[in-house]
Structure prediction request, 507 residues.
Amino acid sequence: MFEEAENDPSLPKAQQSADFIEDLRTDLLREQYRRVDDQRQTLLIVVAGVDGSGKGSTINQLNNWMDPRHIRTLAYGELSDLEAMRPAMWRYWRDLPAKGETGVIFGSWYGSLLTEASRKKPDPDRIRQYASQINQFEAMLAQEGVQIIKLWYHLSAKAQKKRTENLLANPDTAWRVTDADIKVQKRFKRLRQAAEETIGLTHQDHAPWVIIPSANDSLRSVRTGLAVLDALRQKPARRVTIHTPTSVPLNPHTVRLTGMDYAPTLEKTDYESELQHWQARLARAARTPEFAHRSMVIAFEGQDAAGKGGAIRRITDVLDARYYDVYPVAAPSEEERARPYLWRFWRPLPRHGHIAIFDRSWYGRVLVERVEKFAKPAEWQRAYGEINNFEAQMVANGTLVLKFWLAITKDEQLKRFEERMRSSIKHYKITDEDWRNRNRWNTYKTAADEMLRRTDTPHAPWHVVATNDKRRARIEVLKAVVLALEGADQAPVYQEPSIESQFHEAS
Prediction:
């Protein structure tokens, strides 16, 4: 795999002329501007390789050759306190460049995999899990219009040592040498083996690895420029195949909307005492030491006029406004459309001790986008697995995930629509879209039933609540939130299935 790179080749004579470099830079700029104008794809360049191989210098050269206004260089080191409170992929989702832009990634999502693979006694299961998570992440990005190219910078141990010594000998460049650069010599063989395993497990057609020989500065820069140029010229991937799927177990007892009992009610006096009881418990539970080390995400879905706003207010009435946020989800903005659809939901994930409440959520992909044909069939069909994986990552990080489907009968919905039309206070709540959605009642119901069946998981189950009686529905929602918070220290943490169960699921 590294034979050419460890032979430390020099730049061919044909590529040494100023004309060749000028032509290369012209081609890079032309393709970069075409991408900016088209705004169809994001290009992510993942930079990795042997420490002391000149990665940073080369990317500086690339920025010089191209227009740096459309390149975002993103460097990641140790997790900050805020990053450590979110799922591992949060900081990469947060910084995703828009379509048309190029992102250069240092310290990428490969850090944990490479660290584990380079140990004296690596854990094969952990390596497999890291590789599986990476492959899933990159596959979803590719399916959503993000192109990924991964550059591995490599050279012989002798050349690495010489380059490090030369940099140290010059006071103007000595600052560029890190402790990691110096320690490479003692671990070179293990690092090479780790790189071979990592590249072998994660090289995909839609996210390929390119090995860049790095002993010669000029060759390193030219090979990088040619690799990026080739990527810029490629068309969007038509089909992305992932060979290491994460299997998320589903709940065989998922509640269906057909046959639900909407009759039970709660008298006003009973409601007031129940409301006081559960709100008091909610106020206490949200302030416990146990929840200070967890977070909570609450997603509300359901038919129009089912009472999402009223349920949310009964939760927030007793919470400290500094520790929760409510996100009403509407049609995506231009900024959001320029990125994968889950981007806008990854970004607001809460830190420890905080609650994020979504009035509508990421399930729009398999509901409104499916029914209204905003998403292609292939897009919403694969979204079930992407959503399950998204929620699994939250739960694995200690986030309590509650999902509520608020169900209402068609007759009760009509009654509430008519009440809103007559009310000067509530009139703003009724829109032409509400009436149009009502005409597609059965289509939305079919989509909702499939959503419940395919995304009701043990670690992130659906709570289906009949809302013909608003009082009873609000208490059911409050009760579910309180019990989840009170049991925070016993809440399930998602763990990826074993190799055997994955093989069984795939077969």
Q: What stands out?
A: The longest strand covers residues 146-154.
